[in-house]
Design goal:
With 357 residues, this protein is mostly beta strands. Helix content is 11%, strand content 55%.
Length: 357
């Protein structure tokens, strides 16, 4: 590349960056749909996976775990419903070892609310017309391409990364495209497992496009200012994990693990919160019998609430799960309570199949 061309590219990049800077925002919960989690095993353990994940879902939780795949072809699909079925969370992944030291995975995620009624045209000339009601969806999509490789320098060290493309849409009103990168590592020492997952390490960018013509009449009637096209930035997040497995007799196994989420976008309602970093711990456990049946539990979403009678208290979200694995087929079920004072729970069902031919 010539020096003249390099100078032109640098100048163009600087011009684009300076013109877009005034329209860039970094909201606290940008792309939060990617933090809900996937897989019945993980969600039944309170989203504790960074150090222990070793199946096809590692493409989401920590791509370094893909190097532990035992079969040539690995498929996992999941469906869950949040808030009494209002929100649908769907996930599908395919993973395969490339050789004895590396692996590849492709994952697709969709979180959305469908059949939302658009009643803006319900009343026309003081006449109610139900035929004018239209329906739209609000949905977030993510495509993750994951690669992992065993380290040649340190025994037991595995490294991995994700490239992700994000598409979000709000009916015909707005949509955005985004991209970003994650990096992960796992290390094993005897029965101890350690994990590190760095999400959005370069920050993830979402470029929003607003259909102002679709919104103009409503905003003018309500006296609000029309939104503008903008760029939304997702700041990095670190997940540190540690776990240990145990053998109990000849048939039983046990696994205990914990993850610590570190965010850098200001104070959150978590256990430790400062202006620089917030720390959110969660723990999980799994008991297995004969490698066939598994019982799971976990605690996450530790938050502080104001009591009606005054004062504050801490509450955590309990999670429970069960799994069955036989001849390459795995079925995992999980139940998560989404509100402490409600019987409403989210049900997670995931099915996996691993084979060689």
């Amino acid at each position: 590349m010539s020096k003249k061309l390099s100078k032109w590219l640098v100048a163009a990049f600087a011009l684009v960056s300076s013109s877009a800077a005034a329209q860039v925002s970094a909201p606290k919960y940008s792309n939060e749909f990617l933090n809900i989690g996937v897989g019945g095993r993980a969600l039944g353990m309170g989203n504790v996976q960074s150090a222990i994940v070793s199946d096809a879902t590692a493409g989401f939780w920590n791509p370094a775990g893909l190097t532990k795949l035992e079969n040539k072809y690995n498929l996992v699909g999941m469906h869950s419903e949040l808030f009494a079925g209002i929100i649908k969370n769907d996930y599908l992944t395919f993973a395969t070892p490339l050789d004895t030291a590396s692996a590849l995975a492709i994952s697709v995620i969709r979180v959305g609310v469908d059949d939302i009624a658009d009643t803006r045209r319900l009343i026309s000339n003081n006449v109610i017309s139900y035929d004018s009601i239209q329906f739209f969806s609000v949905a977030d999509y993510a495509l993750l391409v994951s690669y992992a490789r065993k380290s040649n320098l340190i025994r037991g060290l595995r490294l991995g990364g994700n490239a992700k493309i994000i598409y979000r849409h709000i009916g015909d009103f707005a949509n955005s495209w985004g991209f970003g990168f994650d990096a992960g590592a796992q290390l094993e020492r005897n029965r101890w497992k350690f994990g590190l997952m760095a999400k959005d390490i370069t920050t993830t960018f979402n470029a929003w496009s607003i259909n102002t013509e679709e919104l103009r009449d409503t905003y003018n009637a309500t006296g609000n200012e029309l939104p503008k096209n903008s760029v939304e930035v997702t700041l990095p997040r670190l997940v540190l994990g540690v776990g240990r497995d145990f053998k109990i007799g000849s048939k039983f196994t046990a696994l205990v693990a914990t993850d610590l989420d570190l965010t850098f976008d200001g104070k959150r309602n978590v256990l430790v919160k400062t202006g620089l970093v917030s720390l959110d711990p969660h723990i999980g456990a799994e008991i297995g019998y004969g490698g066939i049946v598994f019982l799971r539990g976990g605690l996450n979403n530790l938050q502080q609430f104001e009591k009606l009678e005054g004062g504050e208290s801490w509450k955590a979200q309990p999670n429970f799960g069960v799994g069955v694995a036989m001849k390459g087929l795995t079925l995992d079920l999980a139940l998560s309570k989404v509100a402490d004072n409600s019987s409403v729970s989210s049900v997670i069902v995931s099915l996996g199949y691993s084979f060689d031919k």
